[in-house]
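Quick one - first record:
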Amino acid sequence: MSKEIRVLKELGLLTQSPESVPSQHGRPFGAEHVFSGHKPLWRFCNPKLESPFTPEMRQLPVYRTLPPDSTLESAVRETRFLVFFGAGDSPELEKALAMPGTIKLVFEPDEAHLAQWLALRDTREFMNKGVFFFSGNMDALPQPLLWILPSALANSGFPVFFVQNGFEEALPGQADRLIHLMELFYYRNRIYPAQGQEFMRGRPHRPLAMHAIYDRVLHFYRNVVAQTRAGTLNDLREATSGATAMLVAAGPELDQRLDWVAENADRAVTIVVNNALKPFLSTGLEPDFVIINDTSLDSGRAFAGLKPLRRTRLVAHALSSTGDEVFPEIYFFGTDGTDFLPPRDSLLLHGSVITTAFSLAEYLGCTRAVLVGAQLSSPDPYRLSYSARSQYGNASSQPRELIDKFPQLYPARAADGETVFTSLNFYDSAVWFRDRIRMSNVEVINTSQASLIHGSGVVMDSAPRLEADPSLREQLSRVSPHVPEHSRERIASHLRREHRKWRGVQDMSVKMLAILEAGGEKGLEPARELIRIYDGDNTSFMLQRFGEFRNLVFHKRFFEGAMAADQVAGALYYFGFLKQMCGALMKELEAGLSRLG
């Protein structure tokens, strides 16, 4: 290791892979860095979500496709996140180093080339310039690059790329691979959150207090009492040590694998994701565990219409649906943001619930996991496919021409090398899961060749042989919930306080509706003041996820309406739904207090 590289590492400015990638031929240090006009990953995102903010938010666009002839100067008008491939004294990199407020990442896979360039520079000049260097093969890092990079990088805007002349010829494939990784990093940390549960119904986004969505608040009111009678994830630690886990997801191939599942269910710990429960039950068997981590109200549909089960244990996030009386035992994990009960363990997860199922198997002490129906892909380019018996089971869409952008799904390579299609969320989940498997000590077998979960650490076998495990049923019979210590009075006091709060909001909504209906535009000023208050205390944020309320409708009428009558209609719309939301929350609180006794 050269002195300059050692100094750069000591300054915290260099991430170095243990494996260098030698250049196939030399490159001049002074060669230009040219803007990469490739088609970005986010061409598969809805263009309407590129910049879903009101002007007062003063936000950079979430993503944008820049013209292929863009320059450094034009790019920084849209983003502050600059990525350079190739270390050298190019005019573009020198200009970027002088730009305050920008983040610069410089990738140089060839360590010898980087060392030679650094020997010509004063390493200290890179301090406090917002520049960070990466050397070697990024796929050979001890931890995945996408896990190492701090998520706050994505706050600088979407990444744009500048490739040094000669770089692609000297290091074939490196620029494409690194662009793909960096765009996936940005999707994971900026685009997905901006399009997720919290914000998907909030366009256009205005300045709001954003603490908790309606779904999670409602689930908290429902679950806080259940938690006083249920177990926690902690009760399951190493409960089936050394066993094989069968992880069942709701991919379209599950229906073809149900016979195999039925034949082998008693030889493994069966962990079924919530959406795959109904297909699994169609075998006439019950799984050992069902796992749910989705906190949306919609996720509870997977349990709708089910009769009470005899032996299946539900492992649920503290803010997820629990299926009412379907499950005889519930074990909660994660936090609900309160301290009414002792802390409980959580599960490492990302994007898809199949990653949560894997973490549960690991937590139980399983040393092998067999994936069934865990595809995260679809044969249909325009529609995600699921088991026909599942909550989202559906027919394929009509054949359509591939257009390589939204609304087409993202094309990806399956385990058998064939092209399948998926959402960017599922693709990112698959990449994360592959990295997670690689770093685990669990042997993984995947039964689906059409799956995106393949590569290092994954064995492909459509019908693996599972040996009988005589001790497994005995291990499971010893699992039982240990109800955590809690104060009934403290919980009841909190629920009553919440009820009073929503009663007050409902009363104000009723008064505001009366003022608006009687006085028309005379009621606009008090309506604006009250909405401003609710924008600042999370109430408006919750309303965006309630029932049939549509923020876009409200915003166009109230904030953009040209006539006073339009604005009055917007205020009536807002307070009418707010009154309903308060009623739904109070009803849930009353039910909780009744259950608490």
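second record:
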Amino acid sequence: MTQPTNPESIYRDEALELLSSLEESLLELDENPGRKDLVNTIFRSLHTIKGSGAMFGFDEIARFTHEIENTFDAVREGRLALEPSMITLTLKAKDHIHDLLNMAEPDAAAKAHSDELLTKFRALTGGAAAPEAPVKEQVQQVVVESEELPRETFWIRYIPTADSFLTGTDPLRLILELFEIGAGDSLFTHQIMPGLEEMDPERAFGFWDVIISTARGVDAIRDVFIFVEDDHDITIEKIGDDRPRGNDVNDMLECLSKAADPKAALREMRQTYAQNLAKRNAEPEEQSAARTETKSKATSLRVDAARLDRLVNMVGELIILQTRLNRAAGRHEDDPDLHQIAEELERLSDEMRDDALGLRMVPISTSFGSMRRLVRDISDDIGKEVEFVTEGGETELDKNVIEEIKGPLMHIMRNAIDHGLETPERRREAGKAEAGVIRLSARHASGDVLIEIADDGAGIDAQKVRGKAIERGLITPEQQLTEPELLNLIFEPGFSTADQVSDLSGRGVGMDVVRRGVDALRGSVEIQSELGMGTTVRMRIPLTLAIIDGLHVRVGGELYILPMSAVESCQERFVDGPTRIIEKFELRDKMAPCISLRNLLQVEGEQPDYERIVVTEADGMYVGLAVDAVLGQQHAVIKSLDESCNHSEWIAGTTINGDGGISIILDVPQLVRFANRQHNLQ
């Protein structure tokens, strides 16, 4: 059922996006104070939040944001110098606007907090950004004037400089801003592009022609390009009065595509527009009213996330039906038509699966902004200098995965700043730069996403970890562990090497939370560290939580799914006599542990003489899983477990097979840990 459009909800969604952009721009400006384009972006975000807030009844947001907007207006006009304290205060203001958005009606405490922040802004600006007029009156005046002004039609040719992207300007964003002040259409013309070897993908090769009808006059159009007009080639010409109808816009764009030069194109457009207008004026009024007005086609569509989730669920059910059809076709080998239908449906369902999951994919950079803010706030609180570097922000993940990964990321970042990086004094003594570096990167790797958080701090002392582990009874003094195995002890509940407990870390809950959060996503996490050089935490996360590619295996009469992202290879072995839960097998001229799923999961039936070993990777080591048979690959639609099964951490979910039966999806890292615990009890 289609839900009615709620203007307030639309404003909230757009305001949240603007606040995210505002925070990102403020943090960028903090690192690059001389970038005027960032000041302009901040001003435009505040201006939009204020103006739309007043129109949709968010009066407190409009009142509060108005004075902050005036502050950045004074900065961009040179009447006020930008200071770090101004950015800090604006970040706090951004948080307050976010809180106001989540309130049905701001209470007295919220308004008092608004006044408190505004008092600090006034003290900071010293009256340089005095308010001009009540916000609501300004917005209402603009709306009334816009409705009374006659419409005019303009032609805009915008030729961005080749290095637009390098200077922080997005030409397409400016074109989209034009369509916020009027209706029309655009034509993009490619310029001569170099060959692939010489082409620089970060340079612009083309220009836009825009036909737009607006009631706000030519000044509103010039304001769109106000920050690039000195460097970019911009032509604005009036074509005529009134607004275009029917095919007027297409006719004028056709004139542009055929004309030899801009002056000839302008003459042709004015002549064509005048002829069409005269022809319409000569038509009977009934025919003129019947004409359909040309509307610009939407390039994007805002969709409720719940609808996308329902779509993915339905695609999952379709894949289950397609698997059942494949099995039915396999039982009727003499029916070629049935086989063809099954193959076509499999192809279509695979495409639908990829497209449906692609709709939920968003760049991981959406979470980088909050991490940058976290680094800034913590480093200021504890007096450390931190340079935060991000890479691979364009890497896409399922939106649900990104939401779940934020918690583990925040814990790792806190530990890196508080424990990993030294104080400026100690870094000088060690011959390092005073500012420590934290690098957050993401990239695709074998169907998963690899996220790394690396610092150039003091590193982790493996022997200190060993001492703490012996002290807490996690290992015995006689046990000899490798360095990776020692570092993995950091993920044990309550484990901490901190000498002092701070507000940020040291209580031994952070890294345990990280591993539990990553395990819940069917991912893996590992630590690498070099004493005195730094630490790297590496997380491998699946792209989506809805549908996975799995390896279908059988043990006795039980069926299981192993995620393909965890599978390395397959081997076989002959079994002679009884087996234990964990044994050894030869893998690439070395001995590796092999877990018997039959013994571990207590599967009934006789032990076969021949087993297949599925080689997997868990917690940074190769582990074999002994099964009776490997049935092949399968698209597994993940179904949640009942609450009564939540205690079995090694079960990631279930899936429905083609014959209607159930297969258990195994969480390989948790399964290996469960096997180790059971083996130690024997």
